[in-house]
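agent> Task received from the user: take the single chain below, predict its 3D structure, and emit structure tokens. No templates, no multimer pairing.
agent> Plan: (1) validate residues, (2) run structure prediction, (3) serialize to tokens, (4) report one or two observations.
agent> Step 1 OK, no nonstandard residues flagged.
tool_call: predict_structure(input=
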Amino acid sequence: MSKRQKGPLPYPAPGIGAAWLGDSPAFGFGDGMMKLDEQYLTCHQGGMLAMQASPDGQSIWTAGDDGRLVQVDLQGQVHERLQVPRKWLDSLAISSDGSFVAVAAGQTVHVVGQDGTAQELRPPKGPTALAFTHDGQELAVTHSGGVSLFELSSGDLVQEIPCAGGPISVAYGADDAFLFVGLSEPALAGWRLQDGQAFKMGGYPAKPRHLVQNKTGSVLLTSGGPALLAWPVVAGKGPMGQSAGVYRPRLGLVTCVAVHDARALVGWSDGGVDQVDLSSGKTGFLTGPRPRTELLDDPRKMRRSILSLAFHASGNRFAYVGEDGSFGHQWLQ
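)
tool_result: status=success, residues=333
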């Protein structure tokens, strides 16, 4: 049977992130605090704005409106890795091998290496989202005018991709052959980087803030729709000419997505979490409000949305946190 964590729900500040630090669930909140197991850590002297676990699960990075980038280790010790005075640090990205951590600060982006050194990148406009290539050699920075691609070895801006619609999320394809962005229009757009061929998928009622790929890169899962949309990514073609798989275990808006092998977690605007087996299409309820047969409120105006979902490395557990401060973790059947 699935077991839900017992505890004070919701937390008195908005949720920011859910993650796993080793085998311990961690939850970040807007007041700068992190709940790690049963202890509370002060990560920021102000608001926490972003939180992400390292790929190896051995540390968690957070950024805040106090201008600090901090790293929490397995012992629950909080280490400051960067301070940018009088700036809000509000977007994070970590390279797949953990060698680099990028953070947006005002009009600039700072990239911190394992040795603690930092380089500063300056996109044409204020950064909105960040993503590393899988080899960690390049960083994509979205802004209101499009996407800037930086080469990290030199710090040079190597390509500028114009994009209308205001990109707010970004992800590279598994082989770095494609670049995907979620727009504030709202819609999903992207490019085949080899020749610049562009594609665009509309029909989203909300902004696609979460762009998540499975391990093989054959499927791109997105939030922002009335259902979980799973776009097939075909070698050489990406999602062009493909139809998305549609999974709708409840009514409402998808606000968050996570994936582990063929199992996807779907967070909703009403605070519910469901699971989807991408291979069979089977869906199941996990936590929060149970699915309803009719919508009682406009899902775009709800304030209970699931903001972050995280699988344990084993794929047998997950953690979640909501906009209203609700949080928890469960075993999966």
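agent> Step 4: summary for the user.
The longest strand covers residues 15-21.
agent> Done.
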